[in-house]
Structures are given as C-alpha cells and as structure tokens.
C-alpha cells in the first residue's frame, strides 16, 4: 500500500466535510445528491466554469432503461435479458456481468428519483423512433438534466465550487485523506471520484494510440465530442502515483464517426453523422472498408469512429442518395451535394475512377427485398466485399450527398477497477472511503463498443451507489461494505424530494 504523498505547500485548509465529490457531470451530481439524502454534508468540485458545467453529460440526450411493461415515455418492453444481450454483443464479452446487470436493474428504477430532482422526460422524436422502446429521452437534453440536478443540489445545501480542478489527492493505506485544489487542501471523511476520462488530454491520447504502420499519429486527427476539461489528471494520478487497480484498454473509447467540420471540443451530438447505414462509407482512396448495414444504428454507431481511425489519414466519407433523405436525424452541417456521382467524388476530393468503380460494384451487388430501416430487413449485397447485410439499396437517385467523417471521441474506457460498492481498489483491496463513478470506472462494464444511452445508465447507477456508500463510510467507516449498495437512501427533508425507494 502507498503512503501519504509528500506535503506540498498550500495556502489554506478547507474545513472538513463528510463527502467530497470531485467532478461535475451526471455521475458526480447523482453521487452528491445521494450522499446528501443519506445525511452527509457534501462539497462538489467542478473543474469547468459554471457556463460549461456538466462535463460530457451536457451533450447527452437519453438513458437506456430496462422495463417489463410500457412506462410513460417508453413503449413495449425491454427486459433485463435483452438489455444484457445487447451489451454483451457490442462489448464482445469484455464486460463484468455482475456489474453490468447491476446497472441494467438500476436503470429500471432510477427515473422516479430523477424526476424528484427536476429531470423531465419526453417521447422519442422523429428520427429517433428506433430507440423509443429502449431509451428515455430528457426533455431539453443533457444540459437540462444537469441544470436540474445543480438546482436541486443548491436547494438542498450541497456546496458547489466551479473552476476547481483537483491536482492530486492524499491517500494513506488505501484511505482518502485530502484533495489539493487551487492551492487549498480539502479534507473529507469520504470522497467520490467522478472527474471523467482522459479524452481531452491530447498528449495521453497520442501516447495511448502511438504511431501506425503508415507513420501517422492517428490521435492527432481525433476530434473530441465533449468537454475540453476531461484531462484525466486524477485518473493518471491514481494509477501512476497511488497504484490503484486499473481496468480497460487506453485505446478503447466511445468513439463515433462525426462530421469532419466539427470543432475540436464540445461539438456534441449534433455533429454525429447518422446516415451511414443508409448508404456506403469509403476512405480517402474511395474504397469501402466495413459492412454499413451490420446492425441497428443505435447498437453500431459507436464502432465507426474506431473504424475511421484505422483508415489512411483517419478520414472517411458517408455517401447517400436522395432516397435516404428524411430517414435520419440531419446533422448541423449540410452534406456536400452533387447531381452526379462523379461530380460528388470531385467535390469531396476523391479519385473519381476508383470512386465510380466502388459505387458501381456496390450498386450491382444490391439484392433488393422489402426495405425497412426499422427492422433487420432482407435488402443485402451479393458478390462484393465487404458485404452490406441489411438496408442495401443502389445509390442511383440524385441529387447525391457526401459527408466527410473523422473519429469523434466521447469518453475513454481506461479506468479504475471497482465492485458493486463502487470502491476504488488497491492491490484488489477495496478502499474504505474512496469511491468512483462515471467515466472513471465505465471500463468495468464497457471493455469496448457502445450502445446508445448506456453511458448515462452507468453514470446514474454508480453515481447513486458511490454517493450512498460515501455517506455511509463517513459515518460508519468500518462497516459500510457490508451493506447493500442502495440500502441507505433516506427521505429528504426538503419539500418535493422523497425517498427514492418509495
């Protein structure tokens, strides 16, 4: 076990609180609210300015939810086993089933608690109806969700500090002692780490991805879909300086093919290109490289960032024709438009001869059945590699459209190994008062791949667990691990906030 880090000079000492929460997104806010409901005094440190608070959660839209019957905004059913099989498929088995099922079951019961803290839900909108059964959409999106949580936290008396990045923490024998932030040493009886991954740390991304066989540094061409404040400072500090148990591959991430014209940071969901399954995708050499119709888009959209990252120059091009218009959520920027395919290739800067050879081969290979973009239909290709297994229709009806794609990183999967108490582990021994939630532990459930809304499911479940456990640890540090993760929710005294188990 590590010993206390050397005592660096600080300018002030902050009076101890029961629970310190480091982070300002969904998981951190869930932890802060749950800790308060369990009777703890809470201080939350958000590294971003107030205007940029909420981390990547501000860019989200929905929460993947298990349900055994229709529920308000959710139609039909989405039982535990189907949710688990969806997760198992996208992760390729790189997931902890016990923790994954914990998240799945918690997703079935968390929404009443969310509503009591001001979150509102709405039915799926046009263009997202394919997830009306599996995902509950936030009214106003993720920004409205985090604003609701912040209002609730402020009303309840949770202390909140913005522009407060934590540089390091003190740990003694696996036990949290203090955090150092803006020249101040902040002590607490327990701590929750929910400060995000390292996706906005360009140097760490370069180190993780290295150089490819073409001599390129792929990560130099990555765009960051979310916050510029997730530098992974605490994650690296815990792993390198304190020897916390790690989980996950540093190159694995929620990585989406997004519009190449998106900004470096904070482009969010509106830069996603959702028409991939309705056409073909080619690289800068005008060649196809993967099955665009492999599965439903919400289950497969997050593989395309990594696929594009493996192409020359880390760029791809989504090509559709007029038959696809109106069948996908339009991105913020219009596509490049042309009246013919050769003209489209020229406008995109692609080799025209190769482009036409690729498109002609694909068109000739299409075997039309009954097209249905809401089902795994029987429209497929024959005699072309890669095959397109569903939704294969000839691209032959002008005008034609092309979207340049780059890898867009949402969040990284390298994180801290934990268990169903959300405790940080050192040499496989759980800490008595240091917990983790959100992106910093998502790799326990997501070894690779992604399915829409599951990041919010993980953050909500483990944020609630971590906050409850931290509050308990601040009162009964020797006994907390014996309790069930959500056993200590209590009825809040503030009007309008009720027992989450009610």
UniProtKB/TrEMBL annotation:
GO molecular function: oxidoreductase activity
Pfam families associated with the record: FAD_binding_2
This protein's record includes keyword Flavoprotein: yes
Domain FAD-dependent oxidoreductase 2 FAD-binding per the UniProt entry, residue ranges: 18-445
Cofactor(s) in the UniProt record: FAD
Alphabetically ordered keywords of this record: FAD, Flavoprotein, Oxidoreductase
Alphabetized Gene3D superfamilies for the sequence: FAD/NAD(P)-binding domain (3.50.50.60), Succinate dehydrogenase/fumarate reductase flavoprotein, catalytic domain (3.90.700.10)
InterPro entries: CobZ, FAD-dep_OxRdtase_2_FAD-bd, FAD-oxidoreductase_2, FAD/NAD-bd_sf, Succ_DH/fumarate_Rdtase_cat_sf
Region listing for Disordered, in residue ranges: 483-502
Family annotation (PANTHER family): FAD-DEPENDENT OXIDOREDUCTASE 2 FAD BINDING DOMAIN-CONTAINING PROTEIN, FUMARATE REDUCTASE
Protein name: Tricarballylate dehydrogenase
């Amino acid at each position: 076990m590590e010993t206390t880090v050397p005592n660096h000079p600080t300018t002030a000492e902050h009076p101890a609180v029961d629970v310190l929460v480091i982070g300002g997104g969904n998981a951190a806010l869930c932890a802060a609210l749950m800790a308060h409901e369990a009777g703890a005094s809470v201080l939350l440190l958000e590294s971003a300015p107030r205007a940029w608070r909420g981390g990547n959660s501000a860019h989200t839209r929905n929460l993947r939810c298990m349900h055994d019957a229709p529920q308000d905004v959710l139609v039909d059913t989405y039982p535990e086993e189907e949710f688990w099989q969806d997760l198992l498929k996208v992760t390729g088995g790189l997931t902890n089933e016990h923790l994954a099922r914990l998240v799945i079951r918690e997703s079935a019961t968390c929404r009443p608690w969310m509503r009591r803290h001001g979150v509102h839900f709405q039915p799926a909108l046009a263009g997202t109806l394919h997830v009306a059964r599996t995902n509950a959409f936030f009214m106003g999106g993720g920004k409205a969700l985090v604003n609701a949580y912040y209002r609730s936290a402020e009303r309840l008396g949770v202390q909140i500090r913005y522009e407060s990045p934590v540089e390091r923490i003190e740990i003694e024998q696996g036990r949290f002692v203090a955090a150092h932030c803006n020249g101040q040493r902040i002590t607490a009886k327990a701590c929750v780490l929910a400060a995000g991954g390292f996706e906005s740390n360009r140097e760490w991304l370069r180190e993780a991805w290295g150089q490819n066989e073409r001599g390129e540094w792929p990560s130099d061409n990555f765009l960051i879909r979310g916050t510029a404040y997730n530098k992974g400072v605490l994650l690296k500090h815990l792993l390198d300086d304190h020897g916390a148990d790690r989980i996950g591959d540093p190159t694995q991430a929620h990585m989406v093919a997004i519009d190449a014209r998106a900004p470096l940071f904070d482009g969010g969901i509106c830069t996603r290109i959702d028409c991939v399954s309705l056409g073909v995708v080619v690289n800068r050499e005008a060649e196809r490289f993967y099955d665009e119709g492999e599965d439903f888009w919400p289950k497969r959209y997050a593989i395309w960032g990594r696929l594009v990252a493996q192409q020359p120059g880390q760029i791809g091009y989504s090509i559709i024709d007029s038959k696809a218009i109106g069948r996908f959520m339009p991105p913020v920027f219009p596509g490049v438009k042309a009246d013919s395919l050769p003209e489209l290739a020229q406008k995109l800067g692609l080799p025209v001869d190769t482009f036409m050879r690729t498109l002609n081969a694909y068109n000739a290979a299409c075997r039309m059945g009954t097209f249905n973009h809401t089902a795994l239909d029987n429209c497929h290709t024959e005699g072309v590699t890669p095959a397109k297994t569903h939704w294969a229709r000839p691209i032959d009806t002008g005008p034609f459209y092309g979207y340049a794609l780059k890898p867009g990183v949402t969040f990284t999967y390298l994180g801290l190994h934990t268990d169903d108490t959300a405790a940080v582990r050192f040499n496989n021994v759980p800490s008595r008062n240091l917990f983790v939630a959100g992106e910093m532990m998502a790799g326990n459930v997501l070894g690779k791949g992604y399915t829409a809304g599951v990041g919010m499911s993980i953050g909500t479940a483990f944020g609630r667990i971590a906050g409850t456990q931290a509050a308990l640890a601040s009162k009964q540090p020797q006994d907390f691990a014996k309790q069930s993760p959500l056993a200590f929710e209590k009825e809040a005294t503030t009007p309008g906030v009720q027992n989450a188990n009610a």
